[in-house]
Write a structure and sequence with these properties.
Elements (H helix, E strand, L loop, with lengths): L3 E7 L6 H17 L8 E6 L6 H11 L3 E6 L5 H12 L5 E4 L10 H10 L4 E8 L5 H16 L8 E8 H7 L9 H4 L7 E7 L12 H15 L2 H30 L6 H34 L6 E5 L15
Parallel strand pairs: 1-2, 1-4, 2-3, 5-7
Antiparallel strand pairs: 3-8, 4-6, 5-6
Helix pairs in contact: 9-10
Length: 327
Amino acid sequence: MIKLSIVSPCYNEEAVLKDSSRQLLSLLDRLEKAGKITRDSFVLYVNDGSKDRTWQIITELHRDNPRICGLDLAHNTGHQNAIMAGMMTARHCSDAVVTIDADLQDDINAIEQMIDRHNEGADIVYGVKVSRQADSWAKRTSAQMFYKLLESMGVNTVYNHADFRFMSRRALDALAEFPERNLYLRGMIPMIGFKTATVDDVISARLAGSSKYTLRNMLTLATNGITSFSTRPIEMIITVGVVMLFIAFCMLCYVIGSLILGHYTNGWASIMLSIWFIGAALTLSIGIVGTYIGKIYIEVKHRPLYIIKDSIGECGKPSEKTAKPAT
Protein backbone atom coordinates (compact mmCIF):
# COMPACT_ATOMS: atom_id res chain seq x y z
CA MET A 1 0.00 0.00 0.00
CA ILE A 2 1.09 3.55 -0.64
CA LYS A 3 0.30 6.83 1.04
CA LEU A 4 -1.35 8.85 -1.73
CA SER A 5 -1.91 12.58 -1.98
CA ILE A 6 -4.29 14.03 -4.56
CA VAL A 7 -3.15 17.53 -5.49
CA SER A 8 -5.78 19.80 -6.99
CA PRO A 9 -5.09 23.43 -8.03
CA CYS A 10 -7.98 25.86 -7.50
CA TYR A 11 -8.69 29.32 -8.86
CA ASN A 12 -12.13 30.73 -8.07
CA GLU A 13 -13.61 27.25 -7.68
CA GLU A 14 -16.09 27.86 -4.85
CA ALA A 15 -18.89 26.37 -6.97
CA VAL A 16 -17.26 22.93 -7.29
CA LEU A 17 -15.22 22.40 -4.12
CA LYS A 18 -17.85 20.69 -1.98
CA ASP A 19 -18.87 18.22 -4.67
CA SER A 20 -15.23 17.74 -5.63
CA SER A 21 -14.13 16.95 -2.07
CA ARG A 22 -17.07 14.57 -1.59
CA GLN A 23 -16.11 12.57 -4.67
CA LEU A 24 -12.40 12.53 -3.88
CA LEU A 25 -12.95 11.46 -0.26
CA SER A 26 -15.26 8.70 -1.46
CA LEU A 27 -12.53 7.59 -3.87
CA LEU A 28 -9.95 7.50 -1.06
CA ASP A 29 -12.31 5.36 1.02
CA ARG A 30 -12.78 2.90 -1.87
CA LEU A 31 -9.06 2.67 -2.53
CA GLU A 32 -8.36 2.15 1.16
CA LYS A 33 -10.90 -0.69 1.39
CA ALA A 34 -9.37 -2.25 -1.72
CA GLY A 35 -5.98 -2.26 0.01
CA LYS A 36 -4.42 0.13 -2.54
CA ILE A 37 -3.63 3.11 -0.26
CA THR A 38 -3.10 3.78 3.43
CA ARG A 39 -5.67 5.36 5.72
CA ASP A 40 -3.69 8.58 6.07
CA SER A 41 -3.85 9.40 2.34
CA PHE A 42 -5.26 12.86 1.72
CA VAL A 43 -6.45 15.53 -0.72
CA LEU A 44 -4.39 18.72 -1.03
CA TYR A 45 -6.16 21.73 -2.55
CA VAL A 46 -3.88 24.56 -3.73
CA ASN A 47 -5.63 27.92 -3.68
CA ASP A 48 -3.96 29.94 -6.44
CA GLY A 49 -4.85 33.45 -5.28
CA SER A 50 -8.61 33.03 -5.71
CA LYS A 51 -10.80 36.11 -5.38
CA ASP A 52 -13.88 34.25 -4.19
CA ARG A 53 -14.50 32.06 -1.11
CA THR A 54 -12.30 29.19 -2.30
CA TRP A 55 -9.89 29.30 0.66
CA GLN A 56 -12.68 29.72 3.22
CA ILE A 57 -14.42 26.64 1.82
CA ILE A 58 -11.18 24.62 1.89
CA THR A 59 -10.78 25.61 5.56
CA GLU A 60 -14.35 24.54 6.33
CA LEU A 61 -13.85 21.23 4.51
CA HIS A 62 -10.71 20.58 6.57
CA ARG A 63 -12.61 21.17 9.79
CA ASP A 64 -15.20 18.61 8.68
CA ASN A 65 -12.60 16.08 7.53
CA PRO A 66 -8.84 16.32 8.29
CA ARG A 67 -8.07 14.37 5.11
CA ILE A 68 -8.76 17.61 3.24
CA CYS A 69 -5.62 19.74 3.35
CA GLY A 70 -4.86 23.06 1.75
CA LEU A 71 -2.16 25.47 0.58
CA ASP A 72 -2.98 29.15 0.19
CA LEU A 73 -0.61 30.90 -2.21
CA ALA A 74 0.09 34.57 -1.56
CA HIS A 75 -1.07 35.58 -5.05
CA ASN A 76 -2.13 34.09 -8.37
CA THR A 77 0.91 32.38 -9.88
CA GLY A 78 -0.73 30.39 -12.68
CA HIS A 79 -1.93 26.82 -13.13
CA GLN A 80 1.49 25.22 -13.65
CA ASN A 81 3.09 26.90 -10.66
CA ALA A 82 0.14 25.98 -8.45
CA ILE A 83 0.51 22.31 -9.44
CA MET A 84 4.24 22.49 -8.72
CA ALA A 85 3.55 24.03 -5.30
CA GLY A 86 1.24 21.18 -4.41
CA MET A 87 3.56 18.45 -5.67
CA MET A 88 6.67 19.83 -4.01
CA THR A 89 4.80 20.13 -0.71
CA ALA A 90 3.08 16.74 -0.89
CA ARG A 91 6.23 14.81 -1.82
CA HIS A 92 7.57 15.33 1.71
CA CYS A 93 4.59 13.61 3.35
CA SER A 94 3.36 10.99 0.87
CA ASP A 95 4.64 8.15 -1.29
CA ALA A 96 3.01 9.32 -4.50
CA VAL A 97 0.99 12.21 -5.91
CA VAL A 98 -1.88 12.41 -8.37
CA THR A 99 -2.60 15.82 -9.88
CA ILE A 100 -6.12 16.61 -11.07
CA ASP A 101 -8.08 19.83 -11.58
CA ALA A 102 -10.75 20.68 -9.01
CA ASP A 103 -13.56 20.58 -11.58
CA LEU A 104 -13.02 16.79 -11.88
CA GLN A 105 -13.48 16.69 -15.63
CA ASP A 106 -10.80 14.02 -15.64
CA ASP A 107 -11.89 10.48 -14.79
CA ILE A 108 -11.13 9.96 -11.09
CA ASN A 109 -11.84 6.24 -11.48
CA ALA A 110 -8.65 6.04 -13.55
CA ILE A 111 -6.64 6.80 -10.39
CA GLU A 112 -6.99 3.17 -9.25
CA GLN A 113 -5.57 2.04 -12.59
CA MET A 114 -2.69 4.50 -12.12
CA ILE A 115 -1.86 2.87 -8.78
CA ASP A 116 -1.97 -0.56 -10.45
CA ARG A 117 0.44 0.60 -13.17
CA HIS A 118 2.72 1.96 -10.42
CA ASN A 119 2.64 -1.40 -8.63
CA GLU A 120 3.73 -2.93 -11.94
CA GLY A 121 6.83 -0.71 -11.92
CA ALA A 122 5.87 2.65 -13.46
CA ASP A 123 7.04 5.80 -11.67
CA ILE A 124 4.92 8.10 -13.84
CA VAL A 125 1.45 7.29 -15.16
CA TYR A 126 -0.25 9.66 -17.60
CA GLY A 127 -3.98 10.07 -18.01
CA VAL A 128 -4.50 10.19 -21.78
CA LYS A 129 -7.78 11.57 -23.07
CA VAL A 130 -9.66 9.03 -25.18
CA SER A 131 -12.93 10.96 -25.34
CA ARG A 132 -13.59 14.70 -25.15
CA GLN A 133 -17.28 14.73 -26.00
CA ALA A 134 -18.01 16.78 -22.88
CA ASP A 135 -15.80 19.59 -24.22
CA SER A 136 -17.07 22.12 -26.72
CA TRP A 137 -16.14 21.81 -30.39
CA ALA A 138 -13.89 24.86 -30.11
CA LYS A 139 -12.00 23.44 -27.14
CA ARG A 140 -11.58 20.01 -28.74
CA THR A 141 -10.35 21.52 -32.00
CA SER A 142 -7.96 23.97 -30.35
CA ALA A 143 -6.55 21.19 -28.16
CA GLN A 144 -5.85 18.95 -31.16
CA MET A 145 -4.19 21.85 -32.99
CA PHE A 146 -2.13 22.58 -29.88
CA TYR A 147 -0.77 19.03 -29.62
CA LYS A 148 0.02 18.87 -33.33
CA LEU A 149 1.79 22.24 -33.16
CA LEU A 150 3.96 21.06 -30.27
CA GLU A 151 4.80 17.89 -32.17
CA SER A 152 5.77 19.86 -35.27
CA MET A 153 8.02 22.06 -33.13
CA GLY A 154 9.87 19.03 -31.77
CA VAL A 155 8.52 19.27 -28.21
CA ASN A 156 8.47 15.85 -26.52
CA THR A 157 5.05 15.50 -24.88
CA VAL A 158 2.45 12.79 -24.37
CA TYR A 159 -0.27 13.26 -26.98
CA ASN A 160 -3.70 14.16 -25.55
CA HIS A 161 -2.33 14.36 -22.01
CA ALA A 162 -2.86 17.48 -19.90
CA ASP A 163 -2.00 17.54 -16.18
CA PHE A 164 -3.82 14.47 -14.90
CA ARG A 165 -0.96 12.19 -13.85
CA PHE A 166 0.48 9.95 -11.14
CA MET A 167 4.05 10.47 -9.91
CA SER A 168 6.01 8.46 -7.37
CA ARG A 169 8.14 10.18 -4.77
CA ARG A 170 11.25 9.19 -6.73
CA ALA A 171 9.89 10.92 -9.82
CA LEU A 172 8.94 13.99 -7.78
CA ASP A 173 12.43 14.18 -6.30
CA ALA A 174 13.83 14.08 -9.84
CA LEU A 175 11.43 16.82 -10.96
CA ALA A 176 12.60 18.95 -8.02
CA GLU A 177 16.04 19.07 -9.63
CA PHE A 178 14.73 21.06 -12.60
CA PRO A 179 15.59 24.74 -12.01
CA GLU A 180 13.21 26.30 -14.57
CA ARG A 181 11.11 29.33 -13.66
CA ASN A 182 9.08 29.10 -16.89
CA LEU A 183 7.18 25.92 -16.07
CA TYR A 184 5.68 23.65 -18.69
CA LEU A 185 5.18 20.41 -16.80
CA ARG A 186 3.85 18.49 -19.82
CA GLY A 187 7.27 18.92 -21.41
CA MET A 188 9.42 18.70 -18.28
CA ILE A 189 8.09 15.45 -16.81
CA PRO A 190 8.74 13.26 -19.91
CA MET A 191 12.38 14.38 -19.64
CA ILE A 192 12.77 12.63 -16.26
CA GLY A 193 13.25 9.30 -18.01
CA PHE A 194 11.80 6.87 -15.48
CA LYS A 195 9.47 4.08 -16.52
CA THR A 196 6.07 5.42 -17.60
CA ALA A 197 2.62 4.07 -18.40
CA THR A 198 -0.72 5.46 -19.55
CA VAL A 199 -4.36 4.98 -18.61
CA ASP A 200 -7.50 6.05 -20.46
CA ASP A 201 -9.05 9.34 -19.35
CA VAL A 202 -12.66 9.97 -20.40
CA ILE A 203 -13.48 13.67 -20.01
CA SER A 204 -16.79 14.54 -18.39
CA ALA A 205 -18.66 17.82 -17.87
CA ARG A 206 -17.63 20.19 -15.11
CA LEU A 207 -19.35 19.71 -11.76
CA ALA A 208 -20.39 23.38 -11.76
CA GLY A 209 -19.24 26.80 -12.84
CA SER A 210 -17.22 27.59 -15.94
CA SER A 211 -13.68 26.84 -17.02
CA LYS A 212 -11.05 29.31 -15.81
CA TYR A 213 -8.77 28.33 -18.71
CA THR A 214 -9.51 31.16 -21.10
CA LEU A 215 -8.30 31.42 -24.69
CA ARG A 216 -5.61 33.79 -23.49
CA ASN A 217 -4.42 31.24 -20.92
CA MET A 218 -4.32 28.48 -23.54
CA LEU A 219 -2.32 30.66 -25.93
CA THR A 220 0.09 31.55 -23.12
CA LEU A 221 0.51 27.86 -22.28
CA ALA A 222 1.14 27.00 -25.94
CA THR A 223 3.73 29.77 -26.30
CA ASN A 224 5.43 28.72 -23.06
CA GLY A 225 5.52 25.09 -24.14
CA ILE A 226 7.07 25.87 -27.51
CA THR A 227 9.61 28.45 -26.39
CA SER A 228 10.65 26.48 -23.29
CA PHE A 229 11.45 23.26 -25.16
CA SER A 230 12.13 24.13 -28.78
CA THR A 231 14.47 26.43 -30.69
CA ARG A 232 12.70 25.66 -33.95
CA PRO A 233 10.98 29.09 -34.17
CA ILE A 234 14.43 30.71 -34.24
CA GLU A 235 15.60 28.20 -36.82
CA MET A 236 12.52 29.05 -38.90
CA ILE A 237 13.64 32.69 -38.97
CA ILE A 238 16.80 31.62 -40.80
CA THR A 239 14.71 29.68 -43.31
CA VAL A 240 12.42 32.66 -43.84
CA GLY A 241 15.48 34.88 -44.28
CA VAL A 242 16.90 32.58 -46.97
CA VAL A 243 13.55 32.50 -48.80
CA MET A 244 13.28 36.30 -48.67
CA LEU A 245 16.85 36.61 -49.95
CA PHE A 246 15.96 34.36 -52.90
CA ILE A 247 12.84 36.44 -53.62
CA ALA A 248 14.93 39.61 -53.44
CA PHE A 249 17.43 38.12 -55.93
CA CYS A 250 14.59 37.21 -58.30
CA MET A 251 13.21 40.75 -58.03
CA LEU A 252 16.68 42.13 -58.78
CA CYS A 253 16.86 40.01 -61.92
CA TYR A 254 13.37 41.17 -62.92
CA VAL A 255 14.24 44.85 -62.41
CA ILE A 256 17.48 44.55 -64.39
CA GLY A 257 15.65 42.75 -67.19
CA SER A 258 12.91 45.39 -67.24
CA LEU A 259 15.50 48.16 -67.44
CA ILE A 260 17.31 46.47 -70.35
CA LEU A 261 14.06 45.85 -72.25
CA GLY A 262 12.56 49.20 -71.35
CA HIS A 263 9.42 47.58 -69.90
CA TYR A 264 9.16 49.26 -66.56
CA THR A 265 6.97 51.78 -64.79
CA ASN A 266 7.19 53.48 -61.44
CA GLY A 267 4.92 51.32 -59.21
CA TRP A 268 3.96 52.84 -55.86
CA ALA A 269 1.82 49.86 -54.88
CA SER A 270 4.58 47.28 -55.39
CA ILE A 271 7.04 49.37 -53.39
CA MET A 272 4.66 49.81 -50.48
CA LEU A 273 3.75 46.10 -50.52
CA SER A 274 7.43 45.19 -50.36
CA ILE A 275 8.06 47.58 -47.50
CA TRP A 276 5.15 46.22 -45.46
CA PHE A 277 6.10 42.62 -46.15
CA ILE A 278 9.70 43.10 -45.11
CA GLY A 279 8.65 45.18 -42.10
CA ALA A 280 6.23 42.50 -40.93
CA ALA A 281 8.83 39.76 -41.35
CA LEU A 282 11.42 41.72 -39.38
CA THR A 283 8.97 42.58 -36.63
CA LEU A 284 7.87 38.94 -36.29
CA SER A 285 11.48 37.78 -36.19
CA ILE A 286 12.42 40.31 -33.55
CA GLY A 287 9.36 39.30 -31.53
CA ILE A 288 10.32 35.61 -31.55
CA VAL A 289 13.89 36.36 -30.54
CA GLY A 290 12.59 38.79 -27.91
CA THR A 291 10.43 36.04 -26.40
CA TYR A 292 13.49 33.87 -25.84
CA ILE A 293 15.46 36.78 -24.43
CA GLY A 294 12.56 37.53 -22.08
CA LYS A 295 12.66 33.96 -20.81
CA ILE A 296 16.39 34.24 -20.16
CA TYR A 297 15.70 37.48 -18.25
CA ILE A 298 13.16 35.71 -16.04
CA GLU A 299 15.37 32.65 -15.48
CA VAL A 300 18.46 34.57 -14.37
CA LYS A 301 16.52 36.41 -11.65
CA HIS A 302 15.88 33.10 -9.81
CA ARG A 303 12.73 34.44 -8.22
CA PRO A 304 10.57 31.93 -6.30
CA LEU A 305 7.89 30.14 -8.29
CA TYR A 306 5.36 30.79 -5.53
CA ILE A 307 5.08 31.90 -1.92
CA ILE A 308 2.84 30.02 0.48
CA LYS A 309 0.84 32.35 2.67
CA ASP A 310 -0.93 29.71 4.74
CA SER A 311 -1.47 25.97 4.92
CA ILE A 312 -3.76 23.58 6.72
CA GLY A 313 -3.62 19.86 7.24
CA GLU A 314 -1.08 17.10 7.63
CA CYS A 315 1.72 18.50 5.48
CA GLY A 316 1.83 21.76 7.45
CA LYS A 317 4.10 24.53 6.30
CA PRO A 318 6.94 23.25 4.14
CA SER A 319 10.49 23.90 5.24
CA GLU A 320 11.09 26.18 2.23
CA LYS A 321 8.12 28.50 1.83
CA THR A 322 9.50 29.94 -1.36
CA ALA A 323 9.68 26.34 -2.57
CA LYS A 324 12.47 26.42 -5.06
CA PRO A 325 12.32 23.31 -7.22
CA ALA A 326 15.64 22.00 -5.94
CA THR A 327 15.80 20.37 -2.51
